Amino acid sequence: MTHRIALIPGDGIGLEVTPAGVRCLEALAQRPGLNFDFTEFPYSCEYYARHGTMMPEDGIEQLRGHDAILLGAVGYPGVPDHVSLWGLLLPIRREFQQYVNLRPVRLLRGLTSALRDRGPEDINYLVVRENNEGEYSEIGGRLYDGLPEAMAVQATVITRKGSERILDYAFRTAQSRPRRRLAYATKSNGIKHSMPFWDEQVAAMAPQYPDIAVEQYHVDILAANLVTHPDWFDVVVGTNLFGDILSDLGPATAGGIGVAPSANINPDPAIPSMFEPVHGSAPDIAGQNIANPIAMIWTVVMMLEDLGEQSAADDLMGALEAVTGEGKVLTRDLGGNAGTTEFTDRVIAELTG
Ligand code: NAI
Ligand code: MG
């Protein structure tokens, strides 16, 4: 099967880790029956500097015909972050209704957690973040700007449809895992309207999934428990803002930003999902071949799973974890001295050897 992949390397280390991911895919494509057709798009801050927009007007349409989008990172000094975010990432996530942001938090073999005495058996959960609505809405405004009476209002939008589809995804994901537990983040004790509504949607759906143990946590104690008792958690679902925060906290306990993968998913196979490492463009280390490609390679694993290539995904993840488990070839952020390409070479050797 040939999968059409849109590549957006973006900026900074995105230009270094994306080729690492592509090399892994090309190594897998040596197998009969698996092929990738890559189309590269130059959308980035450099593109912005030349054209005044992050992507052309029909950029979304150009991406539409692909089976998946693989993105490195966007953002660079000189272009305000809200320009790069609202000009590229958010339009892609919203136009394609990629309403699931999925972030696995799992301590890979051989890596050290920031949490004392925690090993791979303790940290293995999945954060499912609502990716299209919630606290990140465009509804609101300012009044009396600059005056002592100045005020700002930002509305949170939680819809029944939006909650149902993310919760359904979370429940089904919990069903696919051996522990069958779903924790959900709320703050219905302090936020009077939107969070009780969210809780009601969970309560209404739970009876359809009698095999799932559902646990409610207010987001503050949930954050604390992810640090003190990560082993309690299996699937964690939250609205956009809460999910965003928890899904940065999680990877911080599992080897850091250089290893954290993510996916923006629309489960409808007719619409492309977008896969991207959690990290940004890291201007401080860009261009030196020292960026850790683990986040990107693991992101590629998630893309393969979404494309239905489970055995290729398992093999690539196995190769990646064999290399981390061995602990000999690691990049600097993990205490080693290997470069981006050297680490990638090692993973490919493991994969094909
Ligand atoms: P960042 O994730 O780029 O970097 C934070 C720190 O982690 C830096 O010290 C960096 O060197 C290090 N780091 C990140 N990825 C690494 C890797 N693979 N290997 C080794 N070290 C790594 O976040 P920062 O500095 O806040 O943002 C830089 C730019 O990236 C900004 O323009 C920001 O808007 C953009 N950004 C883009 C994102 C995206 O494309 N999804 C996400 C986050 C930030
Ligand atoms: Mg974030």
UniProtKB/TrEMBL annotation:
Primary enzyme class: oxidoreductase
Ranges of residues in domain Isopropylmalate dehydrogenase-like: 4-347
Alphabetized GO MF terms: D-malate dehydrogenase (decarboxylating) (NAD+) activity; magnesium ion binding; NAD binding
Reaction catalysed by this enzyme: (R)-malate + NAD(+) = pyruvate + CO2 + NADH
Pfam families, sorted: Iso_dh
Entry-linked InterPro entries: ICDH/IPMDH, IsoCit/isopropylmalate_DH_CS, IsoPropMal-DH-like_dom, TTC_DH
Cofactors, names only: Mn(2+); Mg(2+)
PROSITE patterns: IDH_IMDH
Keywords assigned by UniProt, alphabetized: Manganese, Metal-binding, NAD, Oxidoreductase
Enzyme Commission identifier(s): 1.1.1.83
NCBIfam families hit by this protein: TTC
Family, per entry: Belongs to the isocitrate and isopropylmalate dehydrogenases family.
Protein name, UniProt field: D-malate dehydrogenase (decarboxylating)
Organism ancestry: Bacteria, Pseudomonadati, Pseudomonadota, Gammaproteobacteria, Chromatiales
